[in-house]
Amino acid sequence: MYNKGDGVQFYFGEVVQNKLDSTNTYKRQTNSSDSNNLFCVSILVQENNNTINIDNVKPAFPNIKQIPIIGENVLVFRGYDFTTSPDARTHQWYYFPPIGIGSGINSNILPINSQTFTPDVNFSQRSSPILQPYRGDMLLSGRYGNSLRFSSTIPTTDYDVQPTWSGKTVTDPIIILSNTTYTNTDRKYVVENIEQDASSIYLTSTQKISISLGDTNNKNPLSCYLPAETQFDKSQFIGTADRVILKAKTDIAIIDSPKAIILNTTGEIKLGSDTADQSMVHGDVLLRVLQKILNQLNTPIQCGTMSGTFLDRSNIASAQRELQNLLSQKYYINKT
Known about the structure:
Layout: E1 2-4, E2 8-16, H1 23-26, E3 41-47, E4 50-59, E5 73-80, E6 91-95, E7 130-131, E8 138-141, E9 146-152, E10 165-166, E11 173-179, E12 189-190, E13 199-203, E14 208-209, E15 237-240, H2 283-298, E16 301-303, E17 306-308, H3 314-323
């Protein structure tokens, strides 16, 4: 314990079940009387061989919440509460995020003050992967395999696992948001993998990302607009998941590109709804069919020894001119 005057006291303590009121941690009071005591836990501390229980300890950071699990250890300190004024000092205990005693991602449970330890049966333990750190990285890891990495182009030198991205200029930034279902029982370092992770978002600056278009059995790589998907080395926004939904709630949805928009699939493309059953027209085929019809209409009609044609052929000539504008010079579909 560290005590400095009236301002601050520090304890190293173990998180235990809140003996006064556990609803402040994960549930709200129906009358909202707990509005100034949200996310509270109880801490068991030792002082001069005496066990002290401190109830309703609040998180130290108002904008980032990392609530410790029962059995984890935290650093707590006594500061001022919300009723403090220049004329009156009132106090409140606060906790910092859990201490990584066991370097665990899912939990760092280690009872040090409880005589009998009762774990939280509603907390699910999991062998979550431990991200490979690279020099200069900032890593945010959730307890269940979700992570956010602020990194850069890394020179592949003395690391257990090399990055799955590459680039020419060291320190060029990259951000990776990832969910993985991979479990890591051997506690070895792992790195995000855009092909294997359950879902992920990559924000790059100059990095190349090894990604394959199409599914496992039907690859569908870029072939006209180069460089290919694995060789592009300018900024990219890449999102992967088993299903992707982008929804505009009250206004239009926009995909804007000065070069091309490609709907790349080996399956079907449906417009309007998933029940759409009207086939789209292949423009080149339609052009040939209509041209043949117009040619036929221009052919003289033979009736016995007599021949003739339409008296008014102006519509045929007009249709012939309009036919030249049938094919778009911007929009194309795959003829399959």
